Amino acid sequence: MTRKSRLLAMGGAVVVAALIVAGWLMWKPAIAPVSPPPASSFDAQTKLAGARVVALGDCIVCHTAKGAQPFAGGLPLATPFGTIYATNITPDSETGIGNWSLEAFTRAVRYGVARDGHLLYPAFPYLHFTRMSDRDISVAYAYLMTREPVKETAPANDLMFPLNFRPLLAFWNVLFLHPGEQTADASKDAGLNHGKLLVDGLGHCASCHSPLNAIGGEKLGHAFDGGIVDGWDAPALNALGSAPKPWTMEQLVMYLRSGRASEHGAAAGPMLPVTRDLATVPEADVQAIAAYILSIQKAQPAVMGAATDGAGHVAGHADPSPAAQRGAILFGASCAQCHGPAAPMQSIGERPTLAFSTAVNATTPRNAAQMILSGNGWHGEDSMNYMPSFSDIYSDQQIADLVSYIRATYSQHGAWQDVEETVAKVRQENNAR
Ligand code: HEC
Ligand code: HEC
Ligand code: HEC
């Protein structure tokens, strides 16, 4: 063999090896279909345990389209790369997961692979669910297999090239998927380990509350530093001490279980359904989540507390700009009946003043703008969190004026820049969704 032909042969071998590895990564075998297991094969205890797991994992939130049957899929999830539709996970054997064995279901949750072998998009948070225990996965399976089967097929995804080619997800998984059940951290007690499992695994809190990198993975080393989801800022969860009133265990548990806390703003946007689910799980789970979240706080700079008078009203930094002055008039007309110092909501409903709101004290005006544009939906049967949407009532400039006014009146932080641009951008994003 000449030197040249030896080099060529070696090069060829490397290419073949790379192709074999790529093929091995991308190709997953189908798991044989089964006939749907009869509902009677699961006992009541198991189904009850499954209800808890499914609530902690927010499965119903993503897998239910607006006004449609629970778990039947079809909800569009907007990503920077296009729209992905959550699929039907009812036990219908044609369009849902009725013919999935527990083995196939487990592989989907742990490795992001569908029964027929295709790779699933990480919009399905399997990167987090992979931490679940076998027991949690099997009770979730029992719960879903005993729901009403619904015949429904989600619309086709609308993703940009080359991401519409699923096998490429294999490389994404090499970078970001670290499959396997969570192992206990010996430096933490049982309670904190339980909380960590719920936060990092089932609760997938970091998937919204962390910044993403250019290819949509959670930025390494920045877990819980805050992210953007569905046009809302999901605030940092490791800086809860910098709130106008630093979060306590009691306030955090109250917030997570009811969407409200007496010293903080209410849960809104994508956080509202999370709290609805957490309202249905045992309180001990939520306490474990809260304890773990409080254990990951970064050292905070001195707190800029809201200077409130005895009645809980604050003096802001008084912004005499024309925008804030115009906003004051609009606030009197449209907002004061709920948010003004004399509003019944403040005294009877024990709602916090806007001075305690994370949205009003944030570094960007996004959530304040979003709140006024979108309002906040009914919280179950409870109307206490309801705020109407003002997007059809006020122009971008008027909403920007309101935002400037509430910042000036209720926060000690300086005025926001580019408020009207933010309002216009958020409105545009909302319309496109
Ligand atoms: C943040 C949204 C989100 C949450 C929360 C979520 N899913 Fe999904 N899930 C999706 C999306 C989107 C898909 C479709 C992915 C694809 O087509 O590649 C999916 C797909 C699946 C699949 C594969 C179904 C199929 O037909 O291929 C299963 C099984 C599944 N999810 C189960 C669950 C369970 C169980 C939970 C709760 C523990 C859950 N999901 C929570 C978004 C979500
Ligand atoms: C019908 C009563 C009602 C009206 C009218 C109303 N809001 Fe609200 N607003 C609420 C409720 C309830 C909440 C959530 C509960 C809470 O924060 O305590 C809320 C929350 C907010 C928040 C976010 C606070 C947080 O939770 O972090 C902002 C900002 C806000 N409102 C601004 C306004 C502005 C500006 C207007 C007028 C254009 C307005 N609201 C009109 C009831 C109302
Ligand atoms: C689907 C995305 C999503 C998921 C999942 C999610 N959050 Fe949130 N969360 C948000 C958004 C967006 C906000 C801000 C909106 C608001 O203030 O209501 C928020 C607000 C919060 C707040 C209030 C922070 C503050 O400073 O006011 C806390 C606390 C919180 N989330 C905790 C959690 C925990 C704990 C989990 C996991 C069990 C979780 N979140 C899961 C999107 C999410």
Can you offer a commentary on this structure?
This protein is mainly α. The chain has three domains: 27-176, no CATH class; 190-295, Cytochrome Bc1 Complex, Chain D, domain 2, CATH 1.10.760; 322-432, Cytochrome c-like domain (Cytochrome Bc1 Complex, Chain D, domain 2), CATH 1.10.760. The protein has helices spanning 3-26, 44-56, 59-62, 102-111, 126-129, 134-145, 169-176, 190-202, 206-209, 249-258, 271-278, 283-295, 322-334, 336-339, 344-347, 358-361, 366-374, 396-410, 419-432, and strands spanning 76-79, 82-85, 158-159, 227-229, 232-234. The strands form two sheets. Strands 1-2-3 form a three-stranded antiparallel β-sheet, with no helix packed on it. A two-stranded antiparallel sheet has the order 4-5. A hairpin with a 2-residue loop joins β1 (76-79) and β2. α10 crosses α11. The longest helix is centred in the first third of the chain and has 24 residues, at 3-26. It starts with a helix and ends with a helix. Mean pLDDT is 90; it is low at 309-313.
Q: What would a concise description of this structure say?
A:
By secondary structure, this protein is mainly alpha-helical. It has helices at 3-26, 44-56, 59-62, 102-111, 126-129, 134-145, 169-176, 190-202, 206-209, 249-258, 271-278, 283-295, 322-334, 336-339, 344-347, 358-361, 366-374, 396-410, 419-432, and strands spanning 76-79, 82-85, 158-159, 227-229, 232-234.
